[in-house]
Write a structure and sequence with these properties.
By secondary structure, the chain is mainly alpha-helical. The chain has helices at 27-52, 54-74, 97-101, 103-118, 121-131, 148-157, 175-188, 210-268; strands at 11-14, 20-23, 79-86, 190-194, 200-207. 60% of the residues lie in helices and 11% in strands. Residues 240-267 form a coiled coil.
Length: 269
């Protein structure tokens, strides 16, 4: 006689010879079967939903795709121009032993400094001033058109009992605000990056105006070179002024020493 116990979760079976066989139920098999059935049900539900609303889904896809394509086509083309600038590392004529062994690190610091100078806001301001970009068509500062809100407030302000304050018109930006906005726009569209393992720095500018896209990188390179020359001239002028002052002082000391020597000779004579 075979006896089964606990068929759901496992148990044992008595064999005719009196021995027992342990039976263990595989729970993963039941879970896998249930999961497969749920997946089939979910797929059928999804497919039924899609077939029910397929024309709405297709229509929305076409409408969104068409609007996206029209928006993309209506955008003005963006032109990009690039200028390569060669930065030469000037080694000092007299250097220390530490500088001899650390020449590579000094060069890296020098090139990183030049990159930061090219990204400096002061150069961008000089660029905007030199090209007079505030008056350029790319930075049109026409006042915004009066919308529905403006006319609605104008109408309500004529009704005394509503006591609605008249709509305040937006004040035109000042010259300083225009200049600041143009500088920020130029810096946002300007890119300065170094070429790997070289002394070349690429200056890139994006604009909807092709002439402006080509003009800005070249002018920025010119402004950088001019600023570098001005800094060197200022240092030379400062050094010359200091040397002249020092030389005059030495001459005065020499003159006083000669006079003292002359007085000493006369006193001994």
């Amino acid at each position: 006689m075979i006896k089964n116990e606990n068929k759901e979760t496992g148990g044992y079976v008595h064999l005719p010879d009196g021995s027992k066989v342990i039976v263990v139920r595989d729970e993963n098999e039941g879970a896998a079967t249930q999961s497969a059935e749920e997946d089939n049900i979910d797929l059928r539900v999804y497919w039924h939903t899609f077939t029910k609303y397929k024309w709405i889904i297709i229509g929305l896809t076409l409408v969104i795709g068409s609007l996206t394509a029209l928006k993309t086509l209506s955008l003005p083309p963006i032109y990009q121009a690039r200028t390569a600038l060669l930065i030469e590392f000037e080694q000092a004529k007299v250097i220390s032993i530490e500088e001899v062994y650390g020449t590579s690190s000094y060069q890296d610091k020098f090139y990183n400094s030049q990159l930061k100078i090219l990204k400096y806001r002061g150069l961008a301001e000089k660029l905007v001033e030199k090209l007079n970009l505030v008056s350029h068509p790319a930075f049109n500062w026409s006042p915004p058109s009066k919308g529905f809100s403006y006319y609605w407030h104008q109408l309500l302000s004529k009704v005394a009992w509503l006591q609605v304050s008249p709509h305040e018109e937006a004040q035109p930006p000042t010259a300083q605000e225009k200049f600041k906005a143009v500088v920020e726009t130029v810096m946002a569209n300007l890119s300065v990056a170094s070429e790997p393992d070289s002394q070349i720095i690429n200056i890139t500018f994006d604009s909807t105006h092709p002439q402006l896209a080509a003009l800005v990188p070249n002018t920025l390179a010119e402004v950088y070179i001019e600023s570098d020359l001005e800094a060197k001239l200022a240092m030379t002028h400062k050094a010359t002024k200091w040397l002249t002052k020092r030389l005059n002082g030495l001459r005065q000391q020499l003159r006083e020493a000669e006079q003292a020597l002359q007085r000493y000779i006369e006193s001994q004579g």
